[in-house]
Amino acid sequence: MVVLIPFLPALAFTILIFFGFILKEKAPWLAIAALGGSFFLSLQTAFKLFPTGREINISYPWFSFAALSFHVDILSGWMLLLVSGVGLLIVIYSVGYMKGDPRFARFFAYLSLFCAAMLGLVLSDNLLLMYIFWELVGLCSYFLIGFWFEKPAAAAAAKKAFIFTRAGDIGFFLGILLLFLSVGSFEFKTIFAAAPALLPGLLTASTLLLFCGAVGKSAQFPLYVWLPDAMEGPTPVSALIHAATMVTAGVYMIARLFPLFELAPLTLNVVGYVGIGTAIMAGLIAVTQNDIKKILAYSTISQLGFMMLGLGAHSPHAGVFHLLSHGFFKALLFLGAGSIIHALHSNELADMGGLVKAMPVTSLTFIVGTLALSGMPPFAGFFSKDEILMAAYQRLPIGFWLALPAVFLTSFYMFRLCFKVFPGEVKGHPHESPLVMTAPLIILAILACGFGFFNPFGGAAEEEAGKLFVLFASLGTAFLGIFSAWLLYGIKIISLARYKQTLLYKFVAAKYYLDEFYIWFVGGLVALISRLLAIFDQRIIDGLVNLAGLVTQGFSALNRLFDIYIVDGCVNLAGWVLGFSGEKLRRLQTGYVQNYLLFIVIGIVIIWIIKFGL
Amino acid sequence: MEIIVLSLILFGIGLFGALTRKNAIAILMAIELMLNAVNLNLAYFSHNLSNISGQVFVLFIIAAAAAEAVIGLAIIINLYREFHKIDVEEITLLKW
Amino acid sequence: MIFYFLAVTLILSAILVVTLKNIFHCALFLIVAILAIAGLYFHLQAPFLGVVQLIIYIGAIMVLILFAIMLTSRISDRLLQTASRQSIPALLAVIVFILLALKSLDKTPLPAHIGKNFDPILDLGRALMTAYVLPFEVVSLLLLVALVGAIALARKD
Amino acid sequence: MIIGLIILLLKIAAVLVFISLTVLFLVYAERKVSAHFQVRYGPMRVGWHGGLQMIADTIKLLLKEDITPKDVDKLVFFIAPILCFVSAYLAYLTLPFSPQIVVKNLNIGLLYILGVTSLTVLSLMMAGWASNNKYALLGGFRSVAQIISYEIPLVLSVLPVVMMAGSLNLITIVEAQKSLPFILVQPLGFLLYLTAAAAEANRAPFDIPEAEQELVAGYNVEYSGIKFSMFFLAEYVNMFTICALAAILFLGGWQGPILPPVIWFLIKVYLLVFVLMWVRWTFPRLRIDQLMSFCWKILLPLALANFLISGLWLVLK
Fold first, then answer.
1. Quick check: D171 pLDDT over 70?
2. Do chains A and B touch, with touching meaning 3 or more CB–CB pairs less than 8 Å apart?
3. Is A83 strand, coil or helix?
4. What are phi and psi of A68, to 5 degrees?
5. Which of B43, B52, B86 is facing C123, going by the closest CB pair?
6. ipTM entry
7. What is the CATH number of the domain that holds C23?
8. Inter-chain touch B18–A593, beta carbons under 8 Å
9. What pLDDT shows up at residue C34?
10. Domains of chain B in sequence order
11. Chain A: residue nearest B87 by CA?
12. C21 and C81 share one domain
């Protein structure tokens, strides 16, 4: 049963990719049916699982060193629900969003495969299987980000996403190999059991390598640059990447391997600090952006930083809780943004305004998402973020203090966005999106409201110390963020014009020149290495080759004489003999079938005589 | 016994015809003679051994001969359309 | 008596089939030869074969051959060349072949006629529908294929 | 042995004479029937109501000069009418007029008749080819195409009768109809047989090979005198053959109350002959393409269906 969950979308993919040209407009229904089936099965699994806490293990023999093993516990159960549920909503939404696209059916094929890969990743119970699905997720992201590959920007973004995540994947792969070499198994359970006995250095090294993979996939500093560019893909794809698949893979991977990470405190610290650093940096960039999808993208990076902080603070549950709630409201925000873009055909904030009147449903749900993201009570974000801050306060105090500015930034940039987009004069001719698009928004909005109340892991109540302080600190900073956004963009008391000239603002607006750094550093490094290699090539290898050439020349001069007089002589003789005899013998091949028949008869007669005598 | 000799001579005559005639239809007719010689032999054995199988084989051979004649003649008609003659010595696409 | 009459007719007409210059006459003598063989079948107590020989060889195959001759030659056409370049080696080969076969026939013990008679039609039908039912089907398939093939070949396109 | 042979020869001679006389009568009958269908008298002068007209005609034909055109293939030109005549008569070797009056009762009589009638095709081809005349050649082609096409529905329409009687022996077949003539169980088969047989015998409306208006007279255009009369007679012999076969296969042969068997047989045969004449003088001639498509698209499927249904019925019975 559990195996069917990733299998159904995979089947849908297979059918759609081969027969999509027949199905055409009906293609999405297949994808919806498949994902609906997966969602239903996930629900069924969840209902079986959550009350009892029983785990499900399924294993099929595959290679001698790895089985096709699947595992469902509470963690993966929630992930299944998130991926299949949000995936389902996004696919439904895409029916409206992608209408009229020439590769309509193929889009749904890719979406199905994406979900299938992510579901498989969530279910897999050994590193090898996980790595396979991990790469499959990366491949699908490549397809989907570059879905409109006619746009050079989209094609470039797809390549960028692929290469940057690949950079992280190298670390991931090395980590897996290191673990396999030291433990001799890919199975999680075996590794967990063997981990305490390993050398601490080895453990730290392998977990750091694994974390590299998470940095790439979950867009952490310094590999996050691909994520904003990935906004070139269709908006449902962005929603899927940001909310349910792809970026969550890294967080999920660490949470899944947490027993391993727990044994390497250094790695956990790195995870936490990288996370919070990313959160602040991305938050700052988000403030300077004017493209609605870019803002959301940086907010995703920032929120992923929060999740990493939660993981770094020894609380995988907090991280995953935030992952889940973030999944709901970020999907909501992206789909809302998609709805706005669909209506206005523009991503720029400058083109928007007064949408609350023109698109009430989209606007309201979007604001719900914003509130949730900012961590306002009763929305989901409040609970999950609070949990992370709580964990950080207890186990990673520096992280906690650094997180407060990030919280401030979060609410600031989100409300900056809201104040610019929703109130005021109506610009352009926006119209409300069709039901197939708004229905997922409403469902997601309800989830974003209500999800926080049932904490899936129920672990918050362990220590009450400082809980109130943390609560008020985070709420206070969040309100401060909203308030300053209101001052700056709502009623526009303070003008920001002159700050835009400052060096810091320019530095942030240029995304810390990270892309340029990559180009300069990687490009320069490659140039340097290749220059060195060129010198090596010219002096040493060419010298050797030339020497060999000289020697060969001399030898072949000798050979030539031998060739001309002896070898050629033999060959010419053989050729002459063959030519001569062929000239004579070809008269046998008259082309008259009757001649051949006569030869056959004579042959029979001769054989007869030889066999039986005259 | 006499019938075997007879069918042997008939086979020889057919073979001679197949070897020497130049007209494709004439060759086909010579081949029919050879087939008939074989049939005669089979019928003789069937009679001599009181075994019906020989006659069954004769029937099969007649059917095969019919198929062969049909296909052969269709090919010959096609050849005629292409070359306006059916002399095997003049249609020498097999020649070197 | 009847046998020798048929045998002589058969040999003579067969020789004429492979030596005559007028191809239409060749075909006519082939018909004579086939009639003689049909007679031999009756002589060998295989009347069914004889009649089948009449119906299929004369009613179908020979008609086809005559058709082909009429489509590909005229009365006024030049006659067939009989002296082929290889007629003498062919004659020699065939004669040696026949002599060898006669010699080995001499060495082979032939069973004498058992004399047990059977109902030629009933037994034949039974054999075709029991022991030989698969070859029977295969032959019918072969005929169908030949039919389709001939139509495909001879069709003007 | 010798006596048996002599008796056989006598029987053959008797049948020959009977058939020849019958044919003479048939030709006369055809002329009279056609005349009456066309509301005229027909031959009236020679004998009572022209009764001796055919004898006069025969004498005329026999005494006419036998012309052999210059460029014909003389041997074949000579053999063709003889073969036609002989093959027409060969069928009577096994045709039973009554249980006693039969030259040689063959086990495979029906098959034999079908076999020897296929010899007729050869004679027509030979005649058409040997005449060295394009009309004759075309007529020969057409007749062969027609005959070998119609032979298939003919055989297929006869097969159900064979299946029901369980024999190819004509006498057995007749005796199998003691209680019920097969025409009552095989009405479709009977119609198919009659149609196909009429076409086999080149009777109108299927007389394409000798369509006077199109092909002068078909394969026999170059023939005259006694050779022509042989073709002519053979045609009537064939007509009598098919009617006799129809009577045997479908109408119960010689069986009937009161009257002696031979009389019954002849009554049935002449009735069928009359039907054929009636058809000839009532229907217009078919075109060659209509003729072929009628055979392959109508007769053949019908015959196959009839054959299949009869077989199924026999198996299930």
1. yes
2. yes
3. helix
4. -80, 85
5. B52
6. 0.76
7. 1.20.120.1200
8. no
9. 92
10. 2-83 (1.10.287.3510)
11. A592
12. yes
